[in-house]
Design goal:
With 381 residues, the protein is an alpha+beta fold. The protein has two domains: 12-16 and 88-241, no CATH class; 250-379, Orthogonal Bundle (Arc Repressor Mutant, subunit A). The protein is built from 18 helices and eight strands. The strands form two sheets. A six-stranded mixed β-sheet has the order 1-7-6-8-5-4. It has a two-stranded antiparallel sheet with strand order 2-3. The chain is elongated. It starts with 11 loop residues before the first strand and ends with a helix.
């Protein structure tokens, strides 16, 4: 938790993962609701709590769990939506938020996901905020504006929006973003109290509201899928007050890296390139995978096998093109590997599918490889 006695200025404040939220933090939230004409008693009642704001002031309730605090925040947001404020451009609807997030999870890399989010805000003519991504000297910076918001909520939503976006990005790559939250306003007592709600490093008095992190994270593969996103959105963005979700295994991250490279039309990475992408040595990545009961070779072959099956289900690519896409030196090398995986040759497997009258349910080449859009930050013309 942040130390209220620390002096104002630009410094990093790291909050430890919290299981409980103090009465003071909850009082701040409920009093801000009262300023907007929203009854704190009704918020607590909707969240199925019997205590009141007076109980908090009287110290009859000293803390609530982070999960309980999240439920109270959900109750408050439901009250705002019930008033129809999102119709006046005040609040992004839950449906629009879910649609945005599902669009992100189909990205191949984190960088592509951030750029999609920025484009979606532009399509909404910045009514609900905007995002700007820049890179310099190995550091990626995301300027983030969420809003507009009522004056008394600007500080809270600025911090909550940045922490929530960092949490979403970290969840999508299944690993640590090493992100620092940036806040324009100099540190003060209210900001300290708000910041103590989140377990994130925070710098005050900065040039922008947003977050910074190592730019190599932009090349990390997105490891989540639509079904996982559906479950994630049952609690997000209210999970920002709770402890971070468990990270996915390195095996899953490596598999996503291989799939992202292949479907993005890039060379299949070797172990050195993988290790560099994940910020570790080749020996370390092998050791971690061994602990998980896998190897780089096994994962690469598994991914290439699955993609080969997908691409052979349609006629958009010749076998020679599939071989090149999967990183094989020639069609014969691909055929030998495919026979080991499937017990059949690629051309025979495709022909057998046709003979059975199986519909071609594969995607078009441009869609499957992602070459139709590419990575806007680097390749847009």
């Amino acid at each position: 938790m942040l130390d209220p006695a620390r002096s104002e200025g630009s410094h990093a404040a790291m909050a430890e993962p919290m299981r409980n939220m103090s009465a003071e933090q909850l009082i701040l939230l409920l009093e801000k609701a009262e300023e907007l004409g929203i009854s704190s008693r009704e918020i607590l009642r909707d969240a199925r709590y019997s205590f009141t704001l007076d109980d908090l002031h009287g110290r009859r309730v000293r803390h609530v769990t982070a999960v309980d605090f999240s439920r109270i925040c959900q109750s408050y947001m439901a009250r705002i939506r019930g008033r129809g404020w999102q119709g006046r451009g005040r609040l992004l609807s839950r449906e629009d938020l879910n649609l945005m997030c599902h669009a992100l999870v189909t990205s191949l890399t984190l960088g592509e996901a951030v750029e999609r989010q920025a484009r979606m805000y532009e399509l909404l003519e910045r009514r609900h905020g905007w995002i700007a991504l820049t890179e310099s000297d190995g550091v990626a910076s995301i300027q983030l504006q969420v809003g507009p918001a009522e004056k008394c909520w600007e500080r809270f939503f600025a911090l909550a929006g940045c922490v929530g976006f960092a949490r979403l990005l970290e969840w999508m790559i299944g690993g640590d973003m090493v992100a620092t939250i940036m806040v324009k306003e100099p540190e003060n007592r209210e900001l300290q109290l708000i910041a103590s709600m989140f377990s994130a490093p925070i710098l005050f008095g900065q040039a922008f509201d947003g977050l910074t992190f190592p730019s190599d994270r932009l090349d990390r593969p997105v490891v989540r899928n639509g079904l996982e996103m559906r479950e994630f959105l049952k609690v997000h963005p209210f999970d920002i007050y709770a402890e971070q979700q468990p990270r996915v295994s390195l095996s899953v991250q490596v598999a996503a890296a291989y799939r992202g490279a292949i479907m993005g039309g890039k060379p299949v990475p070797d172990v050195v390139a993988l290790a560099r992408n994940f910020g570790m040595s080749a020996a370390t990545i092998r050791r971690h995978l061994d602990q998980e009961g896998s190897t780089v070779r096994v994962i690469k072959d598994s991914v290439r096998h699955r993609i080969a099956l997908e691409l052979l289900e349609n006629d958009f690519l010749h076998v020679e093109q599939i071989a090149t896409m999967l990183g094989f030196s020639c069609a014969n090398a691909f055929a030998r590997a495919f026979f080991e995986w499937q017990g059949d040759r690629p051309s025979a497997y495709r022909r057998r599918l046709k003979d059975r009258g199986r519909p071609a349910d594969g995607m078009s080449y441009a869609c499957a490889t992602g070459l139709s859009s590419g990575r806007v930050r680097a390749t847009a013309h």
